[in-house]
Amino acid sequence: MKITDPDNIESSIKSTTKTIINEIDYVLDGIKEDEFKKFIAAIDSSKNIFVTGQGRSGLVARTFAMRLTHIEFSCHVVGETTTPNIDEGDMLIACSSSGTTSITCHIAGLAKRLNALVVVITAHPDSELSKYADLTIEIPASDSDQVIQSQLTAQFRSTLFEQACLVYLDAVILSLVRLLNREEVEMMKRHANLE
Fold first, then answer.
1. DSSP letters along 3-61, please?
2. Are 144 and 163 in contact (CB under 8 A)?
3. Cβ of 126: how many Cβ atoms within 10 Å?
4. Cβ of 93: how many Cβ atoms within 10 Å?
5. Helix (H, G, I), strand (E, B), or coil: what is residue 135?
6. Domain limits for position 71
7. Which of 38, 142, 174, 185 is 20 to 30 A from 191 (CA-CA)?
């Protein structure tokens, strides 16, 4: 099926983006402040930080890893050829909307057995993945919660989770930048220059 009359499109870019922003705002309004503070403290006290996630959640996790590196944390993406071993005193951050992605659960289980701190970011805090967590951060955007029931979201599957997760993790970065007094000029020195 193709659009036959582009001038007859009912929605505009402004109304469409407003819909998305309102949905993200609704989800982030349900974030628990104490989880946010514990997460920031855990990042600050970790020797090395590892991130994992599959699909679009993995892309969000990779973005967070890059931003942590920019503000001078030792951060690695699980599965990359240069990723070192994880150990006690390190942290694994596992992102999964469903909390049931088998590879993410497996990696979280390994990290737990190796005495690393495991932080899970999910829309389903009672999921299998959360069984491995020392700290679970709920991004309340699951298909079964009131976001869907109230028909607030018009987006496909876990899109709202990924968007809200990205904004949440950017808020973590901004908070760390402020708390640690990171300067733009210093962050730029750690920005990739082979691009």
1. -S-GGG----HHHHHHHHHHHHHHHHTT--HHHHHHHHHHHHH-S-EEEEE-HHHHHHH
2. no
3. 11
4. 29
5. strand
6. 30-180
7. 38
Instruction: Give the three-state DSSP class for 13.
Output: helix
The answer to whether residue 82 sits within a structural domain is yes
Residues 168/42, Cβ–Cβ less than 8 Å: no
Q: Is the pTM of this model over 0.90?
A: no
Q: In total, how many domains does the chain have?
A: 1
In a domain, 77, yes or no: yes
Q: Could you list the mean pLDDT of each consecutive 10-residue stretch along the chain, which spans 195 residues?
A: 65 80 90 96 97 96 95 95 96 96 97 98 95 96 53 67 95 94 74 72
- Single-letter amino acid, residue 56: R
The CATH number given to whatever domain includes residue 169 is 3.40.50.10490
**Residue 106 domain flag:** yes
Strand, helix or coil at 127?
coil
Catalytic residue among 35, 162, 186, 195: 162
- Neighbouring residues of 71: CB distance < 8 A, sequence distance ≥ 6: 173, 176, 177, 180, 182, 187
Distances (CA, A) of 3 to 6, 9, 12, 17, 155: 6, 9, 15, 20, 20
Q: Which residues pair with 77 in a beta bridge?
A: 51
Is there a catalytic annotation at residue 72? no
Query: Is 34 among the domain residues?
Result: yes
